[in-house]
Amino acid sequence: MDGMGLIATLIVGLISGWLAGKVVQGGGFGLIGNIVLGILGALFAGWLLPQIGFIIGGGMIAAIINAFIGAALLLILVRIIKSL
């Protein structure tokens, strides 16, 4: 991944983390925590979703949707683990 790809991933992660924090119900981790999980979710979804054959397409909107899916999954997973 080059420098521009990393910056784009971080921006997409910021947007998707904020959006996932708004959509996924629960106590939340605050704005910063949700953004960090969004960035991790963007990286996670960027790897996982193509592996299982789930490809939306190209472009920034598709990247945000993929990252949102990853961020929401990570938020749900972290909240389940936190509640145990």
Which structural traits does this protein have?
84 residues, mainly alpha, 0% strand
Q: How would you sum up this structure, described in words?
A:
It is globular, with a radius of gyration of 12 Å. Helix content is 80%, strand content 0%. The chain has one domain (8-83). α1 (3-23) crosses α2, α1 packs across α3 (60-83) and α2 packs across α3 (60-83). It has three helices and no strands. It has 84 residues and is mostly helical.
Distance between the termini: 36 Å
- Unreliable segments of 5+ consecutive residues: none
How many helices in DSSP terms? 3
Oligomer: single chain
Q: Return the structural class.
A: mainly alpha
How many structural domains does the protein architecture include? 1
Strand content: under 5%
**Major β-sheet annotation:** none
Q: Please give the radius of gyration in angstroms.
A: 12 Å
Strand/helix succession: HHH
Strand segment count? 0
Shape estimate = globular
Portion in helices: over 70%
Q: What value does the average pLDDT take?
A: 80
Describe the structure concisely.
By secondary structure, the chain is mainly alpha-helical. The protein has helices spanning 3-23, 30-51, 60-83.
Topology:
Blueprint lengths: L2 H21 L6 H22 L8 H24 L1
Helix pairs in contact: 1-2, 1-3, 2-3
